[in-house]
Amino acid sequence: MDTAVKHPMTYPGHTRAILTLGLPLIGGHLAQIAIGVTDTVMLGWYSVEALAAATLASTYFFVLFIFGSGFAFAVMPMVASFVAEDDEVSIRRATRMGLWLSLGFAALAMPAMLFAEPILRAVGQGDALAQNAARYLGVAGWGIIPALLVMVLKSYLAALERTQVVFWITILAAIVNALANYAFIFGSWGAPELGIVGAALASVITQIVSLVGVVIYILLVVPQHQLFVRFWRADRQMIARVFKLGWPISLTSLSEVGLFAASAMMMGWLGTIPLAAHGIALQLASITFMVHLGLSNVATIRAGNAFGRRDRPHMARGGVVVMALSLVFSALTTVIFVGWPEPLISLFMQEGEVARAEILAVGVGLLIMAALFQLVDGAQVIALGLLRGVQDTAVPMWMAAFSYWVVGIPCSYTLGFVLGFGGIGVWGGLVIGLGVAAILLNLRFWGVTLRGVARVPHPT
User: Rounded to two decimals, what is the model's pTM?
Assistant: First the structure.
């Protein structure tokens, strides 16, 4: 537990605490993104057409997944606050109702997964691209059920500061995914060669393995919380609290992911080659973003713990440190992306790929743009993490929606198509939208929310 208010933690102390808690979370996020990287690499080896379709389908899946993840993200600050209050009953209640809400969302999302082809055609995707992406989603869509449940349970464990097990379970999932991909995409080890459908099947298998692993750990290590005892019993008061905190997080996440999904759709209008290059560049940017996301999770947990104690100075010092760590990593990322773009992009293609030169020509420019938005993307996600820790989600939702949809998407379209900058312009809009979000959300936390922490009563 953190030190008391009368013995404030120093900045070096905060740094050590954040890294101790955060490194396993960052490792877990990197292992999670390794699953997507494996899909991208192996499908890139299989065919450019499969890579382009999987890029589109994965974006579609992720939009729905992240929309439903708001309840999991709500569980994290609530459990962290209840830990500070030593309230084990509320820990169980919040986590269980997070699982309920996630199951409900998954049921609502399934039709959109199973009938994706007409939706993709309606947003301007070509016949072949829409058909292949829909084949992927018809299988992979079932994975949203275990995937959302795993998100809730990982948030619960992270709030208990059991971050190492989150890391190891995700590592296991990444290994299972790689083996299943190799088997079912290429028909290895006696398995059928299923191509893009094989990648979808591997994803579902991976998500089920993750769910089984995390449930077994909880049953063995923290049985006192009795998460699954009388699971069917409704808790109306707590489900309302989780929903109230979680739905703005869902819409905030949807706004951001929608920005990237819209960029993928726009890149699809430019053709298969630009879309494939976009998929590679976005995958590389997503890898580095996992570090910022891990730090954001730490910000949520530690801010939630300080919020439970009403310790504003502790929260402020921790916020400064986590923001500084994010800025340092953004600087390192920029050097790597600008200095070595071609070797990074080449990792995702075969040596003999006929479109290799075209993909490199587009991808190098996109990766340089990705280096620019790492800075603002990190700044906005850290601010979101701090705001979620103090359970301030409604106003940030509107700030995010304005930044991503009113500013970012119109800028992407204008720069990419009206002014004729193509893919570079589409990504320029991403930078602008994320930059506006970073400014607004940081002003919200440092200028408004933090000042009121000591005066705000805990929600009941």
Answer: 0.78
